[in-house]
Amino acid sequence: MSSIIGFVSRVRTTFNPPEAKPLPNSKPLKFGVLGAAAIAPDALINPVKSHPEAVVFAVAARDKERAGAFAKKHGIAKVFGSYQELIDDPEIDAIYNPLPNGLHYEWTMKALAAGKHVLLEKPAANTAEETRKMFELAETKGLVLLEAFHYRFHPAVHRVKAIIESGELGAVQRTTTSLTLPGGYMKANDIRFNYSLGGGALMDMGCYTINSMRYFAGVDPTEVLSVKHDLSNPQVDRKTVAKFALPGSITSTIVCDLGVPWKFKLIPSMPDLNATIKCEKGDIKFMNYVMPTAYHSITVTTGSKSRVEKAYTFPDLGEPWWTTYRYQLEAFVNRVKGRPTHAWVTKEDSIKNMEAIESVYAKSGLGSRPKSEYVPSSSV
Ligand SMILES: NC(=O)C1=CN([C@@H]2O[C@H](COP(=O)(O)OP(=O)(O)OC[C@H]3O[C@@H](n4cnc5c(N)ncnc54)[C@H](OP(=O)(O)O)[C@@H]3O)[C@@H](O)[C@H]2O)C=CC1
Ligand SMILES: O=C1OC[C@@H](O)[C@H](O)[C@H]1O
Asked: Signal sequence: where (predicted)?
């Protein structure tokens, strides 16, 4: 009963967060959003409401009317009919880039060139090379660039990592990280099914399964042992299952599916949002590792003994209703303001993740998503 009450209370407050008052001696970080994207309210607009030092100041869409309607709905002050105009606005400090994957590189490079910090949606780009170039430009310019692997900022994810690192269960031997959704959740014309925009299950849900595999194992894969794709259309995987070898004789499986077919075409399958880490002396089953705020469980089993843990806050940070995105925003603002952060996703992490994604597509023969045709001007 108490867990149902907790769930309802967390979800309700997540969507109606208490509004933070601006801090008297701090200039709020002004964000501009590229595109009236579906994810922007959850990932930034709502989290900002409870942050005393951040504001969503502007939105741009390819169609200015669409940007206007979005701004009105979300109380955003400034509207642009082109992404470049927004980037060039001197009042804006940071850009949120939730464009289709295939446009991440071009618009992040343009934003960085204009001197803006960037919160960049996952996966960072279509290739590891593009990812490297974005981070190099950010470093050259002294700007913050973060690939928005929001789940990495949540206390539950840190608790699992701490259990692994405590040595209680011995060395990691096997991991399985899954993210699947029932068929029908994504429309056929979704950007995720569009090869030229960087689509594919491995790019979308798969980038989390690879990131969490690498994070929990604590090492990077050395070889892709096998890959199986189910395609939605030519070159676009609706589902990918891949097995990896990692140092220390670890083997890992990732499963991602943008639309699991319904049983007998009648019964939708339950989403699979689980990570399992099998170690020498026991295992951890982490239910709902990507959206743990609504509900999660961390079941630690050794022999015949099991315990269940949950972690919605850090001892010194957060509220139970803070989403992964709210924790991520906390770190992003702190990093821009030169303060320590409770978690981070580094340049090396983002590059290695894209390398692993590309290695799976290379092994299967499907090939990496197309390289961006954007060529940065030599003066940036
Ligand atoms: N962190 C997370 O939990 C999530 C992250 N994501 C990531 O965010 C990004 C966007 O996803 P999502 O919000 O679901 O996608 P949407 O399709 O809702 O939004 C994409 C935006 O891209 C713009 N766009 C620019 N060029 C094109 C084009 N050629 N075709 C289509 N759209 C275009 C559109 O902007 P305009 O308004 O200008 O037309 C649109 O608003 C992806 O990279 C995805 O991986 C997505 C969901 C969850
Ligand atoms: O990042 C994401 O997280 C949630 C999923 O529904 C979505 O496909 C993906 O883009």
From this structure: none
